[in-house]
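User: Here's a chain of 532 residues. Predict its fold as tokens.
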Amino acid sequence: MTRKSFIRTILVGTCMTFTFLGYVSAADSIGETPIMDMSASEFYTAKDGVTYEGGLYGNGSNSIPSGHANELTQATNNIVPRDINGNPTDSGTIGMISIGMSNTSQEFTKFVKLIEEQGGTSESLVMINGAQGGIDSKKWLDDSFGAYTTLAQRIDNAGVSKNQIQAVWLKQAYGGPQATDPNHIQTLASNIQTIITLLSQEYPNIKVVYLSSRIYAGYATGTLNPEPYAYESGFSVREVILGQINGTTGLGYNTIPVVAWGPYMWADGTTPRSDGLTWVASDYAADGTHPGAGEGQAQDKVATMLYDFFTTDEYAATWFTGNPVGSGGGTVGSVDECVNDYYTQTMVVPFPDIQFDTFESYIQRLHCREVVGGYSDGTYKPGNNVTRAEMAKFVVNAFDIPILTTGSQFPDVSSSHTFYSYIQTLNAHGIVGGYSDGTFKPDETLTRGQLTKFISNAMEYKGISTTSSGTNSFSDVAADNVFLEYIVFLANYSSDGETIIGGYSDGTFRPDVNVTRGAMAKVVMLSSKQFE
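Assistant: Prediction complete.
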């Protein structure tokens, strides 16, 4: 019997009811924009008059800052099987707990059941439901409710020591927020910070705490915790994460574990957010607050979001599945086995939106090589355009180029930029340069012409001669085109039985057309396959 059959969860009791004045009545929408969909020019004003910008990381950005990404990478690399004393050992355990109230408990329980059905986790993983019905963020801070005693009992009952607990999923609420107390966002953020501090003191090997917002609560018919407080919980989570990024007292990387976004779960009722997520009244239990337990209802939806996140996220999958995503490297044997598993359907499809896509096989191989990852919702989005910054990361991972951040820097790529290390690496190795004004323009979309230069220079760096005796067969690529030599080289270079690039049916190449994530995958896979 494998360790997978020992994934454990401990169920909890009933919820408690809170009194509340002035809650929002049940509604299909409250008219707010999900934080992940807010642009830099969109803002939310809380009841205390404080204005909050959009983006999971502020300023309309959903991209993790590079410094935080580095800390998260280091932390997740240290989530390894450990013995009861916390010493790393291949035969040890990775303990993961949930922390929260009744919604969290119900959703985590369904998440564990989904894992038992789907598999795909590390054999060392043991999951323990520490969330407790009726125990909101205030009660996790009040010893009289015994939340930490109950948590310790559940961990012990699961046969896990406190030294083996290394990851946390935390989704909390501030029960019964009052209309006369407008500081809900900051109060919940403060409570979450304190809970994390207490957990880290009791469980010294916790490396990462993943935080999620609440789901939509506009259908609430009672006084437990309606809107706009579920919506505001996302800002509370972000306050904690940005506090750590910005070095706020008590949130430093040397003070508490790394705090990171888990799946962001709020959508404005029946109004689809950018990835299509909605919450309808039939998703819920009769009170309109708790997630429904029936097939396809909110518990199932949240469980799926959690599964997709932890099995595909670039950082979480490192320890959760034992098969990390997006970290580069890999061996030919393991890649071929991974691809074979995918096509024989013995492995969960990594990205549901690539099935039957023209570029499916290329994306899948890059995924198996740990070159590409997906979005927080578990999708790959093959039709999305690629930015120059993203391309830098794909090239570094695919061609296994050593990270090097020394030398001159681009004035528009600060060290805090999400893709700084990849851009700087390509610059330091002479693989890419910038524009005539010295900038790199990381957020500019990549064109087909630029793509050929990235790829040709990376191949040359790896020792492939890019001098070509081939001819230019594209009617729209003039002799003075700045990318001519790269286009000609790749159009005449074969890999795995295909030329790396091709043109359109009308004989054009269209060097100024933007590159999609799907098309990029084909070019990157073919050009780098020999370096697997």
